[in-house]
Amino acid sequence: MPPIIIIAAYALFQFQFCLVFLHSLLILRKECNYPKFVVGLLSPNAMFFYFLFNDFYQSAYKKSAPKPDKAVEGSDKEKLAESTKSD
What we know:
Layout: H1 4-29, H2 36-61, H3 74-86
Helix pairs in contact: 1-2
């Protein structure tokens, strides 16, 4: 399990991503001289950042216990050694 500081930082970053995304959507509701098509271009970018960061966190800090490789286990390892000796 990751340390509590990493969990807190992750939650803070996710909250920050949501705030930035919602802030960019405010342009659609308020009268502003900012071009609305730019919001259409930047909103998917903000969503990609959110999902990519989430994927990074899941793969880096939420790893499950490593599974043993079947090719290296006892009997297979011995068979491999025997086959290389006979060649």
